[in-house]
Write the structure tokens for this entry.
Amino acid sequence: MKLLLLLLTLVSWPPTATLQTDSLYDKLLRIRRELHANPELAGNEIHTQAYLVQHLQDLGLEVKTDIYGHGVIGIIQGAKPGRKIAWRAEMDALPNDFPDELPSLVKGVQHGCGHDVHMAIALGIAEVLAKNKASLAGTVYFIFQPEEETFKGAKGMIDQGLFNNIKPDEIYALHVTALPVGEILVKPNEMFAYQKRLRIKVKGALSPEVGSKIYTSLSRAQPNSRPWDIQLVNDPVVGLMTPNTIFKDYLVMDRNFNTYAIKDTLFLEAYLYETNKSNLQKIIPRIKSIVGDQLLSVSFIQENPTVVNDVRLTDNALLTLKNIHIDYGQVPYFNDDFAYFQQKVPGVYFLLGGSTAALNHAPGFKVDEKCMRIGVDSFSSLIMQRLK
């Protein structure tokens, strides 16, 4: 009988995550809807911080709030020493006022990106792990990060000593988006295209043909594809979940430059998105050759790092999680400052299917809240597996 009980325990590891997630679902709904109704912009996450602190303390976690801005860290110390794992969730909202079936109580501000869902999932994971604390070998850090939408929060936390206070061996995060509800998407290496903002300075006026030539010379896509059409990321034929995806091997850029003049100097600016890092060094020389003698300078004035998943940890997640699929492409236009954490700690960033209509940041973005149950179940199980 003892042997049978031992085998059942091993086979069903982690033994309680799914059942506990089911019982948590109503609580997750209340948490998400409270956060959704009371959004705060980047740098102003005052009440969000207090709300998170109270929930984490109620779960018995050690809580820190003195790292950067309104950030919060919750800590679960397992019964035995072991791996140290961090989970990141963002706190801030967007300056939007789109129609919403769950309206914001703050005019002109709403959670139109899914960060309210991310916080609810993180609190759900924390509750599952706190209830299993006696069986955990290691430490789990929950990093609630402010100012993601401005791409400042992760770097700010690092610069002000985050990893002097906590020392994770690996770090994870997710983003809910317009994929089939509950499906998890991940790939090793780059999840997004490299985003750059280009500035060209020329003397005098510039012929429209030159701007058009720059666009046609730099832009690249597979034959008969439209990687600039972000609505196709969840398309069953050409989207991210198929090997035939159009979202690989491309350079997408603004067709029309943002143009302005200061005295006799003309400035042209545009965003571009390149999937192949090695191609980035070829862009400026190519522009120089096209513009010719009129060129005063050309440079990248914005170069955010992109999310790059650790290969070993990604492979482990693909073997461990249910409802997980390989991502065959790289998403244009979007990015996440989680990339700064990954520069310091090996980590994995997942996409979680959850929007029933439009993409994040767009009118009509609407979350199917059932994705929270799947998120908590999947990722509490993953962390338990990493700590067993």
Q: What stands out?
A: The radius of gyration is 23 Å. Confidence is low (pLDDT under 50) at residues 1-16. The longest helix spans residues 17-37.
